[in-house]
Amino acid sequence: MKKGIIILALLGLTIFGGLYAKRKFYDPKHRLDNAREEVKQLAANDKIKNGDLIFQTSLSGQSKAIQLATKSKYSHCGLIYKDGNEFYVFEAVEPVKRTPLDKWIAKGKDGKYVIKRLKNADQVLTHATITKMKQVGDQFKGKSYDLTFEWSDDKIYCSELIWKIYQRATGIEIGKLEKLSDFDLTNEAVKKKMKERYGDKIPNNEIVISPAAIFDSELLINVKAN
After folding, report:
1. Which residues contact 6 (CB under 8 A, 6 or more apart)?
2. How far apart are CA 75 and CA 55, in angstroms?
Protein backbone atom coordinates (compact mmCIF):
# COMPACT_ATOMS: atom_id res chain seq x y z
CA MET A 1 0.00 0.00 0.00
CA LYS A 2 2.77 2.37 1.04
CA LYS A 3 4.77 1.49 -2.07
CA GLY A 4 1.76 2.20 -4.26
CA ILE A 5 1.25 5.64 -2.69
CA ILE A 6 4.91 6.49 -3.25
CA ILE A 7 4.70 5.45 -6.90
CA LEU A 8 1.54 7.52 -7.42
CA ALA A 9 3.19 10.51 -5.75
CA LEU A 10 6.26 10.21 -7.96
CA LEU A 11 4.07 9.85 -11.03
CA GLY A 12 2.14 12.96 -10.03
CA LEU A 13 5.35 14.94 -9.57
CA THR A 14 6.61 13.77 -12.97
CA ILE A 15 3.41 14.82 -14.73
CA PHE A 16 3.32 18.15 -12.89
CA GLY A 17 6.97 18.78 -13.66
CA GLY A 18 6.39 17.98 -17.33
CA LEU A 19 3.41 20.30 -17.55
CA TYR A 20 5.33 23.05 -15.76
CA ALA A 21 8.31 22.66 -18.08
CA LYS A 22 6.04 22.67 -21.13
CA ARG A 23 4.17 25.77 -19.92
CA LYS A 24 7.47 27.49 -19.16
CA PHE A 25 8.81 26.61 -22.60
CA TYR A 26 5.81 28.15 -24.33
CA ASP A 27 5.77 31.20 -22.08
CA PRO A 28 6.60 34.21 -24.31
CA LYS A 29 8.97 35.77 -21.76
CA HIS A 30 10.84 32.50 -21.29
CA ARG A 31 11.16 32.05 -25.04
CA LEU A 32 12.47 35.59 -25.44
CA ASP A 33 15.00 35.04 -22.65
CA ASN A 34 16.21 31.89 -24.42
CA ALA A 35 16.44 33.77 -27.72
CA ARG A 36 18.47 36.57 -26.12
CA GLU A 37 20.93 34.02 -24.81
CA GLU A 38 21.07 32.41 -28.25
CA VAL A 39 21.93 35.73 -29.89
CA LYS A 40 24.66 36.39 -27.32
CA GLN A 41 26.21 33.01 -28.09
CA LEU A 42 25.92 33.54 -31.84
CA ALA A 43 27.68 36.89 -31.59
CA ALA A 44 30.35 35.56 -29.24
CA ASN A 45 31.11 32.64 -31.59
CA ASP A 46 31.04 34.83 -34.72
CA LYS A 47 28.08 32.88 -36.10
CA ILE A 48 26.20 35.89 -37.46
CA LYS A 49 27.29 38.50 -39.96
CA ASN A 50 25.80 41.31 -42.00
CA GLY A 51 23.85 39.89 -44.93
CA ASP A 52 23.18 36.45 -43.44
CA LEU A 53 19.81 34.88 -44.20
CA ILE A 54 17.63 33.42 -41.46
CA PHE A 55 14.69 31.02 -41.78
CA GLN A 56 11.99 29.80 -39.44
CA THR A 57 8.58 28.15 -39.35
CA SER A 58 6.14 31.01 -38.93
CA LEU A 59 3.09 30.77 -36.70
CA SER A 60 1.04 32.91 -39.09
CA GLY A 61 -2.28 31.80 -40.52
CA GLN A 62 -0.79 31.10 -43.94
CA SER A 63 2.29 29.22 -42.75
CA LYS A 64 0.85 25.72 -43.12
CA ALA A 65 -0.34 26.41 -46.66
CA ILE A 66 3.11 27.70 -47.64
CA GLN A 67 4.77 24.62 -46.14
CA LEU A 68 2.43 22.27 -47.99
CA ALA A 69 2.68 24.09 -51.31
CA THR A 70 6.49 24.35 -51.25
CA LYS A 71 7.14 21.03 -49.45
CA SER A 72 9.34 22.74 -46.89
CA LYS A 73 8.97 23.39 -43.17
CA TYR A 74 10.37 26.90 -43.57
CA SER A 75 7.70 29.48 -44.27
CA HIS A 76 9.36 32.76 -43.27
CA CYS A 77 12.77 34.35 -43.79
CA GLY A 78 14.64 37.61 -43.44
CA LEU A 79 18.01 39.36 -43.73
CA ILE A 80 20.31 39.80 -40.74
CA TYR A 81 22.02 43.16 -40.27
CA LYS A 82 24.21 44.53 -37.51
CA ASP A 83 23.61 48.01 -36.11
CA GLY A 84 26.27 48.96 -33.58
CA ASN A 85 26.42 45.95 -31.25
CA GLU A 86 22.89 44.83 -31.99
CA PHE A 87 21.58 42.42 -34.61
CA TYR A 88 18.21 42.68 -36.25
CA VAL A 89 16.23 41.02 -39.05
CA PHE A 90 14.94 43.04 -41.98
CA GLU A 91 11.70 41.28 -42.87
CA ALA A 92 8.49 41.62 -44.83
CA VAL A 93 5.63 41.33 -42.39
CA GLU A 94 2.95 43.97 -41.91
CA PRO A 95 4.61 46.31 -42.65
CA VAL A 96 8.17 45.72 -43.93
CA LYS A 97 10.41 46.55 -40.99
CA ARG A 98 13.43 45.54 -38.96
CA THR A 99 12.94 43.35 -35.90
CA PRO A 100 15.49 42.67 -33.14
CA LEU A 101 17.02 39.24 -33.83
CA ASP A 102 16.09 37.82 -30.42
CA LYS A 103 12.44 38.81 -30.85
CA TRP A 104 12.44 37.39 -34.38
CA ILE A 105 13.76 34.03 -33.15
CA ALA A 106 11.30 33.92 -30.25
CA LYS A 107 8.23 34.42 -32.46
CA GLY A 108 8.96 31.38 -34.65
CA LYS A 109 7.71 27.87 -33.98
CA ASP A 110 9.53 26.43 -30.94
CA GLY A 111 12.14 29.16 -31.28
CA LYS A 112 13.85 27.15 -34.03
CA TYR A 113 15.75 28.76 -36.89
CA VAL A 114 18.44 28.23 -39.52
CA ILE A 115 21.06 30.78 -40.56
CA LYS A 116 22.62 30.60 -44.03
CA ARG A 117 25.32 32.64 -45.77
CA LEU A 118 26.72 33.18 -49.26
CA LYS A 119 29.59 30.80 -49.91
CA ASN A 120 31.76 33.73 -51.01
CA ALA A 121 30.37 36.23 -48.50
CA ASP A 122 33.82 37.48 -47.50
CA GLN A 123 34.45 38.62 -51.07
CA VAL A 124 30.96 39.84 -51.94
CA LEU A 125 29.53 41.36 -48.77
CA THR A 126 31.92 44.25 -48.30
CA HIS A 127 31.01 47.30 -46.25
CA ALA A 128 30.05 49.14 -49.44
CA THR A 129 27.84 46.26 -50.61
CA ILE A 130 26.06 45.97 -47.26
CA THR A 131 25.43 49.71 -47.36
CA LYS A 132 23.94 49.35 -50.83
CA MET A 133 21.78 46.42 -49.68
CA LYS A 134 20.40 48.54 -46.87
CA GLN A 135 19.70 51.38 -49.30
CA VAL A 136 17.81 49.02 -51.61
CA GLY A 137 15.90 47.68 -48.61
CA ASP A 138 14.98 51.18 -47.47
CA GLN A 139 12.87 51.51 -50.63
CA PHE A 140 10.61 48.77 -49.28
CA LYS A 141 10.55 49.84 -45.62
CA GLY A 142 7.01 50.52 -44.41
CA LYS A 143 5.35 48.84 -47.40
CA SER A 144 2.49 46.43 -46.83
CA TYR A 145 2.88 42.67 -46.86
CA ASP A 146 1.84 41.18 -50.20
CA LEU A 147 -0.88 38.63 -49.47
CA THR A 148 -1.30 37.75 -53.15
CA PHE A 149 2.43 37.28 -53.87
CA GLU A 150 2.58 39.58 -56.89
CA TRP A 151 5.94 40.29 -58.57
CA SER A 152 5.74 44.05 -58.16
CA ASP A 153 7.26 46.52 -55.72
CA ASP A 154 3.92 47.93 -54.57
CA LYS A 155 3.67 45.33 -51.80
CA ILE A 156 6.21 42.67 -50.88
CA TYR A 157 6.50 39.31 -49.13
CA CYS A 158 9.42 37.86 -47.15
CA SER A 159 11.36 35.82 -49.71
CA GLU A 160 10.69 38.41 -52.42
CA LEU A 161 12.30 41.06 -50.18
CA ILE A 162 15.48 38.99 -49.76
CA TRP A 163 15.69 38.06 -53.44
CA LYS A 164 15.24 41.61 -54.71
CA ILE A 165 17.68 43.16 -52.25
CA TYR A 166 20.43 40.69 -53.17
CA GLN A 167 19.73 40.89 -56.90
CA ARG A 168 19.60 44.67 -57.05
CA ALA A 169 22.55 45.31 -54.73
CA THR A 170 24.90 42.51 -55.80
CA GLY A 171 23.52 41.07 -59.05
CA ILE A 172 23.23 37.68 -57.34
CA GLU A 173 19.97 35.75 -57.67
CA ILE A 174 19.52 33.53 -54.63
CA GLY A 175 16.94 30.87 -55.38
CA LYS A 176 15.16 29.86 -58.56
CA LEU A 177 12.20 31.96 -59.64
CA GLU A 178 9.08 29.89 -60.24
CA LYS A 179 5.47 30.34 -61.27
CA LEU A 180 2.58 29.89 -58.88
CA SER A 181 1.53 26.85 -60.89
CA ASP A 182 4.85 25.14 -60.10
CA PHE A 183 3.81 24.64 -56.48
CA ASP A 184 1.68 21.82 -55.11
CA LEU A 185 -1.76 23.41 -54.88
CA THR A 186 -3.69 20.19 -54.37
CA ASN A 187 -3.92 20.06 -50.58
CA GLU A 188 -7.25 21.23 -49.16
CA ALA A 189 -5.55 23.70 -46.80
CA VAL A 190 -3.74 25.24 -49.76
CA LYS A 191 -6.92 25.32 -51.86
CA LYS A 192 -8.76 27.10 -49.05
CA LYS A 193 -6.05 29.74 -48.70
CA MET A 194 -5.88 30.24 -52.46
CA LYS A 195 -9.66 30.67 -52.58
CA GLU A 196 -9.46 33.32 -49.85
CA ARG A 197 -6.76 35.26 -51.69
CA TYR A 198 -7.76 34.89 -55.35
CA GLY A 199 -11.33 33.67 -55.54
CA ASP A 200 -11.75 31.74 -58.81
CA LYS A 201 -9.03 33.65 -60.68
CA ILE A 202 -5.72 32.10 -59.61
CA PRO A 203 -2.78 33.81 -61.38
CA ASN A 204 -0.94 30.60 -62.23
CA ASN A 205 1.69 32.40 -64.33
CA GLU A 206 2.65 34.88 -61.60
CA ILE A 207 6.41 34.86 -60.88
CA VAL A 208 7.12 33.73 -57.32
CA ILE A 209 10.18 33.16 -55.14
CA SER A 210 9.54 30.95 -52.11
CA PRO A 211 11.45 30.67 -48.81
CA ALA A 212 12.14 27.05 -49.82
CA ALA A 213 13.79 28.09 -53.10
CA ILE A 214 16.12 30.48 -51.30
CA PHE A 215 16.80 27.96 -48.54
CA ASP A 216 17.79 25.30 -51.09
CA SER A 217 20.05 27.60 -53.14
CA GLU A 218 23.46 26.11 -53.91
CA LEU A 219 24.94 29.58 -53.43
CA LEU A 220 24.43 29.29 -49.67
CA ILE A 221 26.08 27.40 -46.85
CA ASN A 222 24.64 26.51 -43.43
CA VAL A 223 26.01 28.61 -40.61
CA LYS A 224 23.78 27.67 -37.72
CA ALA A 225 20.72 25.52 -37.05
CA ASN A 226 19.09 24.88 -33.70
Report:
1. none
2. 8
Asked whether the beta carbons of 159 and 167 are under 8 A apart, the reply is no
pLDDT, tens digit (0-9, with 9 covering 90-100), for 171-224? 999 999 999 899 888 889 888 888 888 988 888 999 999 999 999 999 999 998
CA pair distance 198, 196, nearest whole angstrom = 6
Residue 219, Cβ neighbours under 10 Å: how many? 17
Report the DSSP beta bridge partners of residue 156: 145
**Identity of the residue numbered 191:** K
Q: What is the pLDDT of residues 96-152, one digit of tens each?
A: 999 999 999 999 999 899 999 999 999 999 999 999 999 999 999 999 999 999 999
In sequence order, what DSSP letters do the residues of 138-162 get, joined into one string? HTTTTPPB-TT--SSSSSB-HHHHH
Sign of CA dihedral 175, 180, 186, 188: positive
The H-or-E segment that residue 52 falls in is none
Backbone CA torsion sign across 131, 155, 73, 206:
negative
DSSP secondary structure of 155-204: SB-HHHHHHHHHHHHHS---S--EEGGGS---SHHHHHHHHHHHTT---T
Radius of gyration of the chain (CA): 21
Q: What is the pTM of this model?
A: 0.85
